Amino acid sequence: MHILKNRIIFSFVVIFWVTYLWEFYVKPISGPLYTAAVSEYKGQNYQRSLELLQEAYRIDPNDTAILTLFGWDYLKSGTPAAAIPYFARSLRLNPKLDDARAGLAYSWLEMEDGRRALEYFNQLPPDQRQSEGVITAEARAYRLLGDNHAALRLTAIVLKMNKNDKLARKELAFLTGSEDLDVLAASQMAPPKRPLSLIVAARLQDGYFQLFQEEGWKKIYVAGVDIGPATPGHFASEPPTEVSIYLDWLDQIAKMGANSVRVYTLLPPAFYRALLTYNVRNPRTPLYLFQEIWLKNPPDDNLFSPAFTEDFEQEIHNVIDAIHGQANLPIQKGHAGGIFSSDVSAYVLGWLIGRELEPSVAITTNLRNPGVKSYEGRYLKIADGNPSEVWFTKLCDAAVDYEVQKYNWQRPVAFVNWPPLDPLNHPSENRLVDELRIRRARGEQVAPLGLGVQDDLDAVSLDEEKVSAQPAFQAGYFALYHVYPFWPDFIFLDPAYRDAKDDEGLNSYWGYLQDLKKHYQRTPLLVGEYGISTSLGVAHFNPNGWNHGGLDEIQQGTAVLRLTKNIKDVGFAGGLVFEWIDEWWKHNWIAVDWEKPFFRKALWHNDLDPEQFFGIMKFLPDPAPTYKPLGTGAGGGSAPPGGTLPPGPLRVRSVLTASDPTALYIDLQLDAPPGAEPDWSRDRYLITLNTCDTSCGSGLLPFLNGVRLASGANFAIHLSGPDSSRILMASSYNPYRDTPVAGLPLVSDIVIPRQFRMSYDPQGQFVEMVLETNRRRYGKDGTFYPSQRYSRSLLRYGVFDPGASGYNSLAQWYFDKASGRIRLRLSWGLLLVLDPSQGLVFTGTDNKGETVGRVSHQIRAATVVYSASGPPSGWTPAQILARTVSGRNISEGWSLPWPTWSAVSTKGSLKQSYSLLGPAFSKLTGYQVAK
Questions:
Q1: Are 822 and 719 in contact, with CB atoms under 8 Å apart?
Q2: What is the pLDDT of residues 832-862, one digit of tens each?
Q3: Are 778 and 430 contacting, i.e. CB atoms less than 8 angstroms apart?
Q4: Whose CA is closest to 175, among 195, 148, 153, 196?
Q5: Which residue, among 584, 269, 563, 252, has the nearest Cα to 261 in the 3D structure?
Q6: How far apart are CA 493 and CA 886, in angstroms?
Q7: Quick one: pLDDT band at residue 442, thresholds 50, 70, 90?
């Protein structure tokens, strides 16, 4: 017994000492990691904070402080869904943690679940619930639930506590369209007064819009712009809520000579308050509105789905009520909500029903409703139409009917259309199934076409010419088309268009407009979108030079002027330029695979994506990027054994770098006497970049005959003069593969292969970045149209500083004599960075061909200066900027910590095209342009 007792005591002693040693000498301690994570969180470096927390979590998985900070990191970085499990688990471990409870409340609020958010806000202690921040957050929760009056009441409480509370004023703007306290009275709207006689806001006559003025009905030619209002850092579902932003835009649009704007969906109350305010202030140059009513994707691609049609009719009612200042709408995902009390009905030229419809939706709708051929409503009718045409006619009629019945107003109406659904025949455009048949007949091995309806561009039509106005519809019906010069391909491939000429020469756009106008004999035509992108990247080429991207701001203005003249001269009712501002969130097929994750896309601007650069106004990072030294030169230079230092090239004194949400900047400060500049017949500057944060790309540098970089580089910038400088990509990193077409030995396509993995090749080559923009295709008669490719590698020489003389919006590098610097601007997209805001770089593709990446924490760089006039078989560097040089091996360059961010700050700036468009628009509208 005593022996057993002694053993027990001994065991306790051993356990005690083992535990003591473990806790205080052996066990990993999470405290320092947590403290470092908190520091990163406070610095808004949420990704780095999360990485530190992962290490701390492995040590203490049940530490509530770690779990709670996980939640706040995810919440602040814009992923509330990921934050919720951490807050919830922390609260389960310690139900008294109000910090975790508040985190849950705010997370559910960001998830737009007002009910759950209020559930957790209500559990907070009274002192927290009475704070301005929580009351404002509860107001937002009630707004999400559709109770705008409760939200307004809570907002008023906060503003009584602190009239300068920014969040409360923002909430007031969400609800009413203004941050001014006097709009609190707008919560009570007077019932609409229906006039006894019909009011026609505008009408169509002889192919043009007319407005009733003192002297009677007067023709108005529509010249304006489309407003997609998503500012940097925001998506289309997050438009501005500040009246001041819209007022500034409207003022500048009018000063450009425009008389009209078009919006794609119901915007927040602030826009309509701004429109009313502007027009009251400027009665001689009012801006008129084309209000679109956005169409969601129908279930199973069938427009006639009863629930879908009913939902869309309710959307029509809501928008019409809002235009008349009679809407109190709950906020819904993708829909503006709030109290709409600004009556702008006198300034709306027309309703636009729907959106650009995919051909597959029209085909499916027609197949599933074969017996629907006609419709006769009170205001519109159609005979011998297809089901899709009937559906749109019916919904247009419903919109007119609702406005007449409730408000006794009328205005013109149209549904949105585009060339893929035009009623014309295009010989150069083939159905996919027919094209595959031709390709097989020529020997190509083509995989079977999958199930489902294809989006063929000349397989189905929406023909507005079949629609007629009934006698009761005095305002009239028109056709609205989006028409660009670079797509679809038939606009420049169809022989009749390809050979067309306007008074300046060949112009396929002119040919297409003429053909469209010839078909629409009775129906007035309005071009609802046309424009040119100022992106650096090109997605599609047009033989007239009006490409989808690749034009600078001056070229944009010149091209839009000619397109504007074409629209006017053909006899259209007008045109609306796409678009007023650049929208950072957008994506195009050639770039979308390189913009991930999509929910962070609005945080950076991809110069290679044309869809993001159609604006007449751009946004510049504010403040401008700050340059910091990356490394200094090696005094008098260095050379490997056997090498010589040629006397010519200007040496690099230091390397400076900067970054912003658009690009990485590198400056080479040269040892240049005043006025001196590199001799490009001889001097060469090579900059290597490794963005992978590990060995990748090639270890063998180009142009240097056997010089190696220890960790490799996936990009090499070779500066050899204004017309020949290039950025090259390591072949082992290049995803664009020239692949032979099976069965056609002399034909190849550029494809991105599946399961591609970036790698490190010590002997790898550097290659140009070549893409395929226009795919090879076959017309209806079998005519072969070859593919078109281009290289992104050529670096455009010119000044890229917007405030400097000689600025060119597409410039990527130049030598600045004043500072003695070579200045370089590298777009994030050019470096295949999937998300620069968190350092996510491309690493390969998965088994479906989707691009994948990993977070990089640094960018490594090295610079070599050499002379092209040295012995052709030897390496004669003037200077190597690297930490150590041994023989022909550069062991390491400098590293730049990856610049991450979670919010953007910008300022709007008018493009150079703005001043070019003004005189032409003024001539069309009679409005005075800004001096």
A1: yes
A2: 999 999 999 999 999 999 999 999 999 999 8
A3: yes
A4: 148
A5: 252
A6: 58
A7: very high
Rounded to whole angstroms, the Cα distance separating 720 from 685 reads 7
The H or E element spanning position 21 is helix 2-21
Phi, psi at residue 11, to the nearest 5°?
Answer: -60, -45
Q: What does the pLDDT read at residue 148?
A: 86
8 A C-beta contact, residue 828 and residue 658: no
Alpha carbon 547 to its chain centroid, in Å, reads 19
- Strand pairing of 260-263 and 288-293? parallel
Give the helix/strand (H/E) hosting 824: strand 821-827
Residue 910: which pLDDT band, with cuts at 50, 70 and 90? very high
Distances (CA, A) of 898 to 438, 583, 699, 860, 903: 50, 25, 22, 10, 16
Q: What angle do CA 107, 108, 114 make, to 5 degrees?
A: 140
**Secondary structure (3-state) at 184:** helix
333-368 pLDDT, tens digit each: 778 889 999 999 999 999 999 999 999 999 999 999
Residue 323 phi, psi (nearest 5): -65, -35
Query: How many C-beta neighbours within 10 Å does residue 572 have?
Result: 25
What pLDDT is stored for residue 864 in this prediction?
Answer: 87
Q: What is the DSSP string of 750-819?
A: EE--TT-B--EETT--EE--EEEEE--EE-TT--EE--EEEES-BPPBSB--TTSTTB-TT--EEEETTT
User: At CA 646, angle to CA 645 and CA 652, rounded to 5?
Assistant: 75
- At position 478, the amino acid (one-letter code) is F
DSSP 86-123: HHHHHHHH-TT-HHHHHHHHHHHHHTT-HHHHHHHHTT
CA–CA distance, 457 with 923 (Å, rounded to integer): 36
224, β-bridge pairs: 260, 576
C-alpha span between 391 and 388 (Å, rounded):
5
Residue 619: what pLDDT? 98
Torsion of the alpha carbons at 472, 475, 479 and 481, rounded to the nearest 10: -150
Candidates 200, 94, 208, 189; CA nearest to 924 is 208
How far, in Å, CA of 136 to CA of 172, rounded? 10
Cβ-contact 478, 222 below 8 angstroms: no
Tokens of 143: 């707004």
CA distance linking residue 661 with residue 905, whole number of Å: 9
Token couple for 433: 């199934």
Pairwise CA distance, residues 347 & 220, whole Å: 13
Query: ∠512-518-523 over CA atoms, to 5°?
Result: 110
Q: Within a 10 A sphere around the Cβ of 123, how many other Cβ atoms?
A: 16
CA proximity to 605, closest of 388, 833, 416, 795? 833
Q: How buried is residue 548: exposed, middle or buried, by Cβ count under 10 Å (0-12/13-18/19+)?
A: buried
pLDDT for residue 647: 54
**What Cα–Cα distance (Å) separates residue 163 from each residue in 41, 48, 448, 674, 872?**
30, 37, 66, 56, 74
pLDDT tens digit sequence for 659-715: 999 999 999 999 888 888 999 998 999 999 999 999 999 999 898 877 888 889 999
* pLDDT score of 266 more than 90: yes
Mean pLDDT of 437-456: 89
Percent of the residues in the chain that have a pLDDT greater than 90, as a whole number: 69
User: Three-class SS of residue 223?
Assistant: strand
Instruction: Write out the H or E segment, with its range, that includes residue 879.
Output: strand 877-881
Q: Can you tell me the mean pLDDT for 287-299?
A: 96
DSSP string, 346-389: GGEEEEEES----HHHHHHHHHH-TT---EE-SSEEESS--HHH
Q: Which domains does the chain have, with CATH numbers?
A: 28-187 (1.25.40.10), 199-426+459-619+910-925 (3.20.20.80), 646-902 (no CATH)
